[in-house]
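User: Second chain of the day. Same drill as before.
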Amino acid sequence: MILINKPVVLIAAAGKGSRSGLDYPKTLFQIEGRSILSRILEAVSDIDLEPTIVVSPSGERIINSHLESMNLSGNTVIQDKPLGMGNAVLSMLSATAYQGASDILLLWGDLPFVQKSTLDKTLELHFKHNNDFTFPTLYSDSAYTIVSRDSSNAVTQIVETRELPNHKIEQGERDIGVFIFKKNIVFDILRENLPSKYSKHTKEHGFLYIIEHLVARGLKVEALNIATKLDSISLNKIDDLSDYV
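Assistant: Same format as last time:
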C-alpha cells in the first residue's frame, strides 16, 4: 500500500520483562530465533524506516546493541522512570522525529505477530475518514480491555478490566495495542491533569483514558473491528507464547 500521509512510528518498549521472568527487556524475547522487536520493525518497515523506540534506562544499551548487531534501524529515547504508558508516550517529546510528525502510529513493544495488513488497513481508514484517533480491535473471550460503544455504534471509551471493582476478565471487543492519532491533539491531552489519568490499580499514568476525553471534546475516534487473533498475541508471561516458541 502506498500512503500519501505517512505517520511516524513509535514503539513503546520500556517494559523490563520482570513479570515474564526475564532479566532483559521483553521486546527482545526471541521466537524462532527472532526478537519481538525485530518482528515489529519488519511489520512497520513500509511505514517508517527509522521508528522511535521508547526504552528504559537499563534497556537502552542492550536494545541499541541488538539493533546494531541485527542491522536494524531505530532511534531510542529513554523513559527515565517507569511511570506508565502515558508517560512513556510523552518521552517522544525529546525525539527528533516528533518535530516533523503530524500523525503517530503507536505500537506496544510486545506484539510479535502484528500483521502488516492490519496496520495498512488501519492507516488507510484513519486518513480516509480524517480521524483524530483510530485503532484496530477484535472480539475476545479474554478481553483485558473493553471497547464501549453507544447506541449508534460510536466509540465512547476503553475500559481496562483491572480498573473495574471486581477486576474480572470478560468477553468483548478489545484493542490490540496499536493506535494511530493526530500528534498535537493527543500529546496535549496527555499533558493535562484529567480524571482517570492515573490508574487506580498501578497509580501510573495510563494511555487509554484519553479516548473518553477525545470523544467528550467532539473529536473523531474510530475503532475498526479488523484485527486477527495473531495481531492480539502479546508477551505478558512466557506461557502466553507457549504455542509459538
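DSSP finds eight helices and twelve strands in the chain.

User: Great, on to the next one.
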